Amino acid sequence: MKTDIQIAQEAVMLPITEVAERLGIEADDLELYGKYKAKISDEYMNKIAGNPNGKLILVTAINPTPAGEGKTTVSVGLGQAFGKLGKKAVIALREPSLGPCFGIKGGAAGGGYSQVVPMEDLNLHFTGDFHAITTANNLLAALLDNHIQQGNELGIDPRQIVMKRCLDLNDRVLRNVVVGLGNKLDGVVREDHFVITVASEVMAILCLANDMQDLKERLSRMVVAYTYDGRPVTAGDLQAVGSMAALLKDALKPNLIQTLEHTPALIHGGPFANIAHGCNSVRATKTALKMADYVVTEAGFGADLGAEKFFDIKCRAAGLKPDAVVLVATIRALKYNGGVAKADLNYENMAALQKGIVNLEKHIENIQKYGVPVVVTLNRFVTDTEAEIAYVKEFCEVRNCEFALAQVWEKGGEGGVALAEKVLKTLEEKESKFAPLYDVNLSIKEKIETIAREIYGAGNVTFSAAASKQIKQIEELGFGKLPVCMAKNQYSLSDDPSLLGRPVGFEMNIREVYVSAGAGFVVALTGTIVTMPGLSKQPAAYSVDVNEEGKIVGLF
Fold this sequence. Notes:
The protein is an alpha/beta fold. The chain is 35% helix and 20% strand. Strands 1, 2, 3, 4, 5, 6, 14, 15, 16, 17, 18 and 19 form a twelve-stranded mixed beta sheet that branches. Strands 20-22-23-21 form a four-stranded mixed beta sheet. The mean pLDDT is 95.
């Protein structure tokens, strides 16, 4: 069996100018990054601003398991399937982080015959967006420390610096560091911290900004520290906005590449859904909606994380209205939720399937709370039996969901035609009555409790003394009306990753709360979640190499 990278490297790609021509984009509207990658120009985005919007389809999934779900693969395959049916479609996805690429999860290009290409470029440096975001964030950190060193005119309390440096790699030893060691010229000694770039507020800001002016306004509102008397200090106060914007000027433009079947794909931004808001950029999504009749986008990890934030943060901020949701599951993952060990997932087990399908049930119910029609798709494996498939199909249809099998890993767009037809049927027959879950005018604690109870199934929410104090300060500073971005493990509906299936009545623990004023949300950290991941005992980096022909190998 060929690996994903072998399939991608054997693909015959079209010049990106030809892919663009199919959408009516002229060469002058592209900023080329070689033969197969380009950025969409500001001039083109302004030119199509008056076009009607296409239909917006969100792809999400059940909670991830070691068995694999294939959400990005289904997203790509669905976009290709629309092409098979003669529909004008564009895919809008996130850029991969180098952390998972060299860690354990893998890349974000899809898989098999449903991939976006050039796969190696996308999973590594791509067009440099993440480097620009990392550099802009760390420039702000350098200006902050330099301000303190040069006399501290703003009266910044070094013990109340809340912004963190970032790096787009998993590096656990950087979570807590001490900076400024050495002599007097080496800066003020203080404790500092690193987050992975995709968890940084600069990443969130770039992904939620509508244009350069909006980007600069958001950057200026970033709270980086507090003074000795408790006043917030912003990036605007540090005169950092102009130089940060200069670094982000090109990164703000969406990237255009293609799938294996030449479906256009806008790939832009990449916040994680377990520790950030988990969606591709507003600019890319809005641009795609003006370019095509059908736009397929995705939100990270399970629907309890990515879809909730897509609905309550991104759609609210951008004025987007999703028309349908595709909820991805696998029989293997459902059996895993039912207590089957990974080694035994290849065997039919109806009892485990019936026990584990409650995870899918909860996600269906959650999406329906937002008033958006749901199509459930099984990403099919060869070990799935007809009895197992029939059970899941009936389970979904009883709950007012369309159901379709997806075989896009093996067959590309052709393997997604049945799913595309069910999505089209849903769009024609069922109206989306989308509305966010909660009113932003609720208190921060009420918003957190609403998400925990309604989406996760918690029976009670507890707040640490530190979190309660932080919430009080955030509300006193006027940030209490912002939506909430929950940082939670992705493996369980609860804050305990070992609780599979559909846990109910559990206690959700909020240990820390802080404001991302530029991004426009309040972040709540639950359980033991961390914002700088570490590497496993056998990281994926061990397998990556460059062979004698100069080709990258081992990258999935």
